[in-house]
């Protein structure tokens, strides 16, 4: 395919994507396929000779789409929101077209520099303490990681390296291995990644909610900052639940009032498509020294070498999509978007509260409503199964204090009040049938 | 931005990318900017209100492009090739448009299933032993990791988990920490990642070339397989240099004739844009058990849960770009592409050999030529600096057995014989001036 054909096919793909998103409501939110469905539809071997683009695009509808869970359908209320905005798609296209690998400054200066500036922009938007910003001559700064798991691993590595060096100052005879065996890290029992345990074998799990964890870890001052920060960006709708990612910051620094690093995922709720997990550090040397000790590098304040901030060597030009999103939405557009989602969650909560067969299982603060039928876990498991089997909306469950709970997460960029009303009507209709059947069987 | 505007802007972006790639020769391959150039061109804060797309696209030329190192210029011979093909761009656009997060089968069945089948396609293309394939009921299978660093880390984690469990069978009293302190891993001194050392503190570095390392690690049978595999795909041009990534496979399994895992990067030389690092395992339970022990999951052969194969939880629909590339090039198209690059490297090597002021410093087998002026390291450092300062072509150096060496890597998809001839003329002209100046200063 040459550039001329790419002009044609690229434009067809733009229309295909626009059609997909414009008409996504018409697609069933959760697919009907069974495990292994796709293998039967695809040849066993790659073709020896080139195939035509038309045939591939036809196969997208025939083979791929029947197996897609449509995360951006306004009837998708499962898992968590994941970003998908048009400006981010455009930025990502450009990133692919430039196709540079920005591991060092010289390998593509714009890639390193735009990322550093975009992390400053975002850090200011969420009111991070100025020590976390790079500025012209700061000691801190931010980086885009692929995911929060990677950010956590990197933060843990930096904390471990620093702890080892500190301990070795007073205990020259201790080996690195001996010190690692004696390090203890604290984390919440609510984290979804086990990676900290790779680096520090002795983990202590703090049970209970995030706030308790942060108190236990002595990180409350960090937490307060996180809270204030999101408040400033998002209005007054935010509290500690959204600050969950800052747990990562506190690991390795228990009993100290301030975090050394901060991480959250714009690729969830901030309209920047996956992957874009932003991480800031107060002292970037803590991080880069964990990866490489290079005296020449240490002397350079100007050249960020982002490969020393992360696990991979290679890195895409991901800051372009942040730049496109921040400029095309503006801070006010981002605030409006988050506020709309929070309003819709409250609208759903109010519907639940008006039906005394149901109960709300956790405070509704942001975009998530945890609810259930008053009654047994089994009843709620059947309710969820019936809702998902009906394929009108899609939900996933969680367990809260031993109770099986349905999670209703406001996810899609295009979700409106009408979808919330439809979802609730769907849930209550299915619940009514279920309760009636159950009553009949017990009568 | 709504779908209507996205149709317009998306098509403009397609044209912008096509223009960029069609006319990339006209751009200076390496930029003139100094560290910190970009901050001065961008506001200190994100805009409060939305900006226009036209202004952003203008700023791409004004702010971004002056700082881009053009990896896809046919005058770029630095680092290594990185994939950038039109079919991959189209596949990636679609991946962004669908925007699903495929961590589990249910979170988007097509995402998991296409990836598994594409890894089987590619595994067959490179003639991997059938144990590495998933098939309908195999115990192996493949996964897309972001980079080889992540694949290495995951393979090391699986190997470590397996070793710990094995040792604990006979030594119930040993803790995990005690066992980790006694594990030893072997790796080549030529690897570019330090991550194995995170998991096994006692590393042994094998000095010398990859073949020696593989022999030392007892992995020679794996290596032979890798060699055969790439031969089959690529003709007879390939030998062990390209099999470097398989070092990863042997780590954790010294003195055993067969590798448990295999990893290489289609995002380098196989026209699938970054990120796409493919990794296969013979027993996927070795891998998934290292991440999660879930008896229900272990019973399921059908549902791959790819989050248990990797560090991140989230994952994009990256197999789409493999599917597009394999189908639009066909196996024959991929072979032709690799063979062209290898031919061009030999063309450059022959030019070097015809000039007795120069020497070739390593066998030329694939797409890389290591060469230098006969003479001191200082002389060659100045030569490289003068070449890069002239900005006509871009090269980076390496050190081989104490010698400062210039690396000439065939990189761009569009590079042709004329660019090789131009590059050599450029190098020899600069060398002649340098040698003349040097002679004058010593006369």
From TrEMBL, chains A, B:
The keyword Lyase applies. Its cofactor is pyridoxal 5'-phosphate. GO terms for biological process: amino acid metabolic process; carboxylic acid metabolic process; dopamine biosynthetic process; gene expression; kidney development; response to toxic substance; serotonin biosynthetic process. The keyword Lyase applies. Coiled coil: none annotated. Its EC number is 4.1.1.28. It holds the Pfam family Pyridoxal_deC. GO terms for molecular function: 5-hydroxy-L-tryptophan decarboxylase activity; enzyme binding; L-dopa decarboxylase activity; pyridoxal phosphate binding. PROSITE patterns: DDC_GAD_HDC_YDC. InterPro entries: Aromatic_deC, PyrdxlP-dep_de-COase, PyrdxlP-dep_Trfase, PyrdxlP-dep_Trfase_major, PyrdxlP-dep_Trfase_small, Pyridoxal-P_BS. GO terms for cellular component: cytoplasm. Keywords: Catecholamine biosynthesis, Decarboxylase, Lyase, Pyridoxal phosphate. Pathway: Catecholamine biosynthesis; dopamine biosynthesis; dopamine from L-tyrosine: step 2/2. Belongs to the group II decarboxylase family. This is Aromatic-L-amino-acid decarboxylase. It comes from Naja naja. The lineage of its organism: Eukaryota, Metazoa, Chordata, Craniata, Vertebrata.
